[in-house]
Amino acid sequence: MAVFEVAPGVGVALVSALPACEVRIMPTGPGLLTLVGEWHPDVIVLFRPGNELIQSVGAIAGAGQIVVSRDGSLGSLGLGDVELHGWLPAEATIQQVQLAVESGLRREREQQELRRHQEVLRRILALATIVGRLRSPEELPLLALEGFVDVMAGHGGTGAFAMQLGASAPVRYIGVGRLAAMTGHLDLPNEAAEAIARCFRGEADVLRTAGALVLGVRGSGECVGALYVEGVELPGSFDDLVAMFASLLGQSLSNAVLFQRSSHDALTGLYSRSFGLHRVAETLALAERHPAPTAVMVIDVDHFKRVNDTLGHAAGDAVLVALADLIRSSCRTSDVPSRLGGEEFLVVLPRTDEAAAALVAERLRRVVAAWRGSYEGVDLQMTISIGVAAAEPKELDTAQLVARADDALYVAKREGRNRVVRAG
Hints:
By secondary structure, the chain is an alpha/beta fold. It folds into three domains: 2-111, Response regulator (Rossmann fold); 134-263, 2-Layer Sandwich (Beta-Lactamase); 273-422, Alpha-Beta Plaits (2-Layer Sandwich), CATH 3.30.70. It has helices at residues 12-16, 29-39, 51-58, 94-133, 139-153, 190-200, 239-263, 273-289, 304-311, 313-330, 354-370, 398-414, and strands at 2-5, 23-26, 43-47, 65-69, 86-88, 159-163, 172-176, 206-209, 212-219, 222-230, 294-301, 336-341, 344-349, 373-375, 378-380, 384-391, 420-422. The strands form four sheets. A five-stranded parallel β-sheet has the order 2-1-3-4-5, sandwiched between helices. Strands 7-6-10-9-8 form a five-stranded antiparallel β-sheet, sandwiched between helices. A hairpin with a 2-residue loop joins strand 9 (212-219) and strand 10.
């Protein structure tokens, strides 16, 4: 596309005869500026313009390539930062104008692709940074998929993520847009399902099929997933960018899996003992910089041995899983629950004094006492005892604070169980 400002005495036929261009001709400078601001043409040809008009056109964002036809020399214009693509004599021929426009079109297409390339790179790096901070193998794929679909296909696009965390693990699917409710390969076009299978087999990392893009996601040397996005019309030069994102995503996903395995209890999904104690230390250290009390709760299932002895360890595991869910749902978002081992649990309550922590503990105790479950037709219920302790900054270290809560827990057990006891 090209737009022309035609000075008096210049034949309109000269410019309107250009082939393969959508030409707009404006006889005045103000009209030209309005058109350029609204139309954003690829090439603008100015016949005998003044310096002020050239500078005004050059100041418009997205104005495209500027070609000037005027007597004089380029160096004598004094245009400052305005960049000219072409310089023609005042009495330019149609052939000269046509060559200048064609050259400008090519250059503008190249610059548009470069700008798009840079924008995609910026957005992919920003998305990779966000994804890299996540530590949840469940949350990470969905956020990565939503962000990647938005970058590649735009708002309202559709895509899916196939994930396999381990050679023997089943392939799981997450979808957005039209594929939000997908459950398996049958929800995808056949060519997409085959492309995903090829990624898992390690045959390819970037595949294009019928307006769609498929990326293999590798973590720790093996394919852990595949991204599928529909409605993608990107040149092949973008393959390196999307492959880079797939590599960063695979690394982040592997790191999230390793973090979860090392920091979470395999049975309950709560944090592990080591992570829970580490969080107590972190919270105490933070409380020194921003003075506030730190509280902990130590929780124990009452008469848990009876469950194992009478119903078996599988039933005992069901009780522990149920308790973990109740702890998660009863604690505040700032609290950090973990499993100390066996039937004992620890909850860290940042910026909380002992009285407030006791209220949280009492609410949890009541929720647990009201719970009813079943295992293989056998009714299940439980009660818990809770010891609560708190410390001001620099008053106690991690071991001392947890020990005080543990002492309070044993007092609760001696006094009849199913109760909350404060260390203070």
